[in-house]
Amino acid sequence: MNSLLIGTAGHIDHGKTSLIKALNGFEGDSLKEEKERQITINLSFSNLICKEKHLSFIDVPGHKDLVKTMISGAFGFSACLFVVDINEGLKEQSIEHLEVLEILGIKDIILVFSKCDLCENLKEQGQKILNALNFVPKEIFYTSIKDEASIKKLKNYLLNLECKNTDEKLVFRYYIDRVFSLKGIGTVITGSLNEGKIALNEKIICLDNQKELIIKNIQNHENNFNEISAFNRVALSLNCDYKELKKGFLLSKKGFFKGFKECDVLIKAKNLKNAKMLFCVGTKSIECKVNILKELENDEFFAHLDFEKNLFLCFDEKFVLLQNNRVIGGGRVLNPMSEPLKREQKNKFLMFLKNKDLKKAFEFLTNTHKYGFGLLSSYQRFKLGHEEALNLAKELNEVFIDEKNLNVYNLSILDEFKKFVSFILEKNPYAMLSAISLALRLSWASVEFCEFGLKNMTNLLDFKNGVYFKKGIDFEKLKEKNNNKLYEMLKKQGIKAEAPYNLYDFLELDRKSGDEMLKKLTKQNLIVRLTHNLFVEKNALNKLMEECFELLKNESLDVQKMKEYFNFSRKYAIAYLEYLDKNEKVTKINEKRYLKDNI
Predict the structure, then answer these.
(1) pTM of whole model > 0.70?
(2) Alpha-carbon distance 200 to 134, whole Å?
(3) DSSP letter at 162?
(4) What is the mean pLDDT of the segment spanning 419-437?
(5) Angle between helices 475-493 and 500-507 (to 10 degrees)
(6) Helices in 280-342 by DSSP H: which ranges?
């Protein structure tokens, strides 16, 4: 859809709402209080359609006490009509609104001089205002709502503005600005879609309450769509109770964002101090504590922000800071995740992020994260898709990239892996190793990294049938030796045999080889498998059954008695009773076992 989101900005009573009404006939001040006080209090949303072009308008209040509302609307702007009463010139809120636009990076600012019918020296007064501005407007218009030609000229210009292109790689992110319930429809939310796209019946998630939702209907100014993308005003009908959602909640796709009560940011502000402030992002506002990390040039600072609740921020996301309801400054999120680093190291990392030198940031993380760093969160952390992150990681030197699990390892950790394997072989020269068995013991290492590490130890290891073992040892003899060791261990442990995986770890056996040995011993009738993870030596089992039959001659057996007589855990007691049930001489009545001859 050929659309554009256009907002208003400017001082109170400079004619923003009247201008929108002149452009499209929409009366924005609909609340009783707005009509009585003749000021805009809430955001209002309207549109203008001409042929293939679709303009969505966001009209904001200009009162100094409503700057937070103005900010929540400004996050949705693609372009802005900056309205100045040519007779009054720039006022307090004119300047503050311009500061917000600058913080949010809104560069397409159209200067609209209003109430020109009341001004005798238009050009002189207009030039005076232009000289006071610190930016060059995209275009300048002299208007009056009483001069139809001036409004038509502005309208034609807006309808010919080039629309912003949607970046197809961006993930759907949508801050709610209104929530309500409609009879026969249910829960409806509205907001400005500035990133990604959404489709009918698609599953999404509300990050603030972790509730999964389904899109029942999509509308843009009362028109239904099967799919819609940025940049548009969007109303969504959802399958939930409207009371579960609130203004400021963030909707997105599942699996991309985690919540954190902290982040590291770049702030531009004059005389910034460590203090509590109001953090405004999208339509959300939340108190934060600002802790300055480093003062830079040009009134810029690196800072750490602490929040009372989890936020689901994204790299390079813009924000505004308020204190006592006034704009203090703002900036962009550099590190949206918790990153426990010393101040000097953190400032170094943040400088890479500030300059968007992501290759340097990747190098930094591979050097500081000794046991590898993950790329699963690459979108939230760097606004990169997994493929983009992998391609960037491949440009690094001295790293191993686990593409399957999206991990990047500094090759310096390979020495630690080799020492671990060497230690195992020193302790047990007959160890049978695999990447899977080692990954289970090394919490930081993936199977792929372990495989890579083992392949880099050909001077110490031989490989056969998926197993790595000490160089020079005959493989068949190795298997036979471990098979005998496993049997001797089960024989020694008797009726309280440990779980197979514990036995494998003790013998340094990979699980596949261990499983094959147990199968062989079972087939040879040397051991019996009672449950999934309980194997018992045959003679020990037979002896236990003999004892059970002796007890059954005079009484019944149940779980509790098995635990008492043989000092079993519940797991062992149940396993042996179930084995006893297979004997035709035994019957089970109400969880108790009896000899049939005694009944």
Answers:
(1) yes
(2) 44
(3) P
(4) 96
(5) 130
(6) none
Residue 189 — φ and ψ, nearest 5°?
-125, 155
Q: What is the largest CA-CA distance in the chain?
A: 119
Burial class (CB in 10 A: 0-12, 13-18, 19+), 140: middle
In this predicted structure, the answer to whether residue 74 has a pLDDT above a threshold of 50 is: yes
Using CB atoms within 10 Å of the CB of residue 570, give its burial: 0 to 12 exposed, 13 to 18 middle, 19+ buried. Answer: exposed
Q: Considering only CA atoms, which of 6, 26, 58, 21 is closest in space to residue 191?
A: 58
Phi, psi of 540 (to 5 degrees): -65, -40
- Provide the pLDDT for residue 2: 67
**Cα–Cα distance measured from residue 41 to residue 50, given in angstroms and rounded to the nearest whole number:** 29
Phi, psi of 544 (to 5 degrees): -65, -40
pLDDT at 331 exceeding the cut of 80: yes
Rounded-to-10 torsion of CA 349, 355, 358, 361: -10
Segment 417-429 mean pLDDT: 96
pLDDT tens profile 207-253? 999 999 999 999 988 889 999 999 999 999 999 999 999 999 999 99
- The residues, ordered by sequence, that sit 6+ positions from 170 with a Cβ below 8 Å of its Cβ are 195, 196, 230, 383
Question: How far apart, in whole angstroms, are the C-alpha atoms of residue 279 and residue 500?
Answer: 55
Least confident of 21-25, 87-91, 139-143: 21-25
Cα separation of 421 and 433, whole Å?
A: 9
Higher pLDDT, 33 or 463: 463
> Which letter does DSSP use for residue 498 in this model?
P
Q: How far is CA 538 from the centre of its chain?
A: 53
